[in-house]
Design brief:
alpha/beta; binds pyridoxal-5'-phosphate; 432 residues
Length: 432
């Protein structure tokens, strides 16, 4: 008797999703895991995750609220919405109330829902964080990449935004500005923020200010563009980076009251999709946004470690011949190995995926190729996340080191050895 093949449904994927790859980060992680399995040393500079533990008072609050089991209001717990509004008022002087805040399971999810409910183009600079463009593609929105230049450290220049908007002034648009930035670690000057705000106001765009790394400005000097374009700016934030709680999945959007209609539309979609964000996490988040001395000290030391380590990595990359700017916030750098193009071509390396792959295979240093951030693939840019260290141990050691003292190479070698050794390996690899 012949065995009949079971009849299964045909593959009819949403055409916006068909052909879309899983994120590059996952591919790098899988290859890194494979190399580790083979007994090779791998330096994990690919995944952008905070190396630091969640501050103790926030962990304690989560423990105390483990029993919270009810569904919460779709917009978020009232106390948390108020805590987020007071936090924005305290640190940025913004005039937002609890009613203006929407809480979600990560700011990424909120960005997706925003793009779904608003009808307009997505405008982002190149390079930009890996997920903005695929989200637009999934929803079926047009993506407008705005060019930037390495000599401006890849920042979106007001004139470029003006040029794009002037081509069709009345067109609805969402512009996303992320600073301190992933992938570059750079941020904007107050003058640039004012100029960008002026253009955004002129064309009445919805501006999403992605400030997920705001508290990780290395000198604690983050300034929000919402100060200069309050009526059109949504401030995006959450616990994932400064609080080291990416896996807790909590993000926040703070709207101006003039955009309440957007918040309401997003809340409707949220009510039919994720319902509400995890209850214990929301209670714990209140503590994080209220802040206190202990959390301030934690942040002060985290910034200090990132500042010194970022500077070390930046110097090493420059010595190796890359063109790269010193990071001012977050934990990323975006070196361009273009100056070494001829030397790399001799080894058959001509584009960023090739560079990333060979670096991983030959030195064990995992990074992400610039093409994933919207750069041309034949450019030799990479994103490095200098996070492969035990943040808890480094925090304790930094606390015991007087503030006026530099966290020098000896400190970094002791407490962030993988990052330091990864840089040694990159330099050796490029020198041969
Ligand atoms: C620039 C940027 N925005 C947003 C996110 C998403 O953060 P969340 O964990 O809140 O979804 C990330 C996370 O990597 C990010 O790098």
């Amino acid at each position: 008797m012949s065995r009949r093949r079971p009849i299964t449904p045909d593959v009819h994927l949403n055409l916006n999703v068909r052909g879309l790859k899983q994120s590059a980060t996952l591919a790098i992680n899988e290859r890194s895991a494979q190399l580790l399995h083979e007994g090779r040393k791998v330096y994990r500079l690919g995944l952008g995750q905070s190396p630091f533990p969640v501050p103790q008072p926030v962990v304690d609050e989560l423990k105390a609220n483990a029993h919270q089991k009810d569904y919460l209001p779709v917009r978020g717990l009232r106390g948390l919405r108020e805590a987020v509004a007071s936090y924005l008022e305290r640190v940025q002087g913004l005039d937002r109330t609890g009613q203006d805040v929407l809480v979600g399971p990560g700011s990424k999810e909120l960005m997706f829902i925003l793009q779904l409910v608003y009808y307009g183009d997505l405008v982002i600079p190149t390079p930009s964080w890996v997920s903005y463009a695929p989200q637009a593609q999934i929803i079926g929105r047009q993506i407008r990449w705005v060019p930037t230049r390495p000599e401006n450290d890849w920042r979106l220049m007001p004139a470029e935004l003006d040029r794009l908007c002037a081509s069709d002034p009345g067109r609805p648009r969402i512009v996303i500005l992320n600073y301190p930035a992933n992938p570059t670690g750079d941020s904007y000057t107050v003058e640039e923020l004012r100029d960008l705000a002026r253009i955004a106001r002129q064309y009445r765009v919805i501006l999403v200010s992605d400030e997920i790394y705001g508290e990780l400005h290395h000198r604690g000097q983050h300034v929000s563009i919402a100060r200069y374009y309050p009526e059109g700016t949504i401030v995006s934030g959450g616990l994932s980076k400064w609080c080291g709680a990416g896996g807790w999945r909590l993000g926040t959007f703070a709207f101006p009251s003039s955009l309440r209609w957007l918040l309401e539309a997003m809340a409707t979609v949220a009510s039919e999709t994720f319902t509400s964000t995890s209850a214990p996490i929301q209670y714990a988040a209140i503590r994080a946004f209220q802040g206190d001395m202990e959390i301030q000290q934690y942040l002060g030391q985290a910034r200090r470690i990132l500042r010194h380590l970022g500077r070390h990595v930046w110097r090493e990359l420059r010595k190796a011949g890359a063109s790269v700017s010193e990071p001012v916030g977050g934990f990323y750098l975006f070196p361009d190995f273009g100056p070494l193009r001829e030397k790399l071509a001799v080894r058959g390396i001509r584009d960023s995926p090739g560079l990333c792959e060979r670096l991983l295979e030959e030195t064990g240093v995992a990074t992400l190729p610039g093409v994933e951030f919207g750069r041309p693939s034949d450019e030799l840019t990479l994103r490095l996340a200098y996070v492969d260290f035990d943040g808890g141990r480094a925090l304790v050691a930094a606390q015991q080191t007087p503030l006026e003292k530099e966290l020098d190479r000896d400190f970094l070698e002791l407490y962030c050895p993988n990052v330091v050794h990864a840089m040694d390996a990159v330099r050796r690899w490029l020198a041969t």
